[in-house]
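Following up on my earlier thread - several people asked me to post the actual chain instead of describing it. Fair enough. Here it is, all 192 residues.
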Amino acid sequence: MIRRLYDWTIRMADHPHALWALALVAFVESSFFPIPPDLLMIPMIIARPSRAFVIALVAMIASVLGGMLGYAIGAFAFDSIGQPILEHLGKADSMEVFNEKFNNAGFWAVLGAGITPFPYKVITIMSGWTGMNIVTFMITSVVARGLRFFIIAALLWKFGSPVRDFIEKRLGLVFTLFFVILIAGFLVVKYI
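Reply from S.P.:
Thanks for posting it. Predicted structure:
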């Protein structure tokens, strides 16, 4: 199954509408979708290395715009969803302390989640939920997502074939490690 998905993404990477598909995946991943844009971006760059930096730019812009949606979900849906849950659990008073701690470290949280495999959507929603300064959130998102996508683009542009060979030979391992890291990120957030 993983091999078919990989082969499909390699074929899709050279499709005329691949950039639009990447933009859509990057946008929704930043607020609610569980699959990162890297899974489409990497084969797109491997298929067309000359467009590596255009692909990275599209992923970054769409991801930051999707992050704004995640921020809005946190800012506007918390009262109807999050607050009643916290009250039911007897944790409503803890929210203010958490908000202050998160916002004090918010720049680093957004930067870390934007660069690493940690689920960026969690931080975008938490940023809106805690009322993090929107300008700080946006600037940090641009820096973090830009670093992540442009570093990947540069590495693939420079070392495309060996990276593709590594991925194809160890596809199961790469996907397993990715999902272990993704699940660990969700667990860390759950128990913070």
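The chain has one domain: 2-190. That should answer part of your original question.
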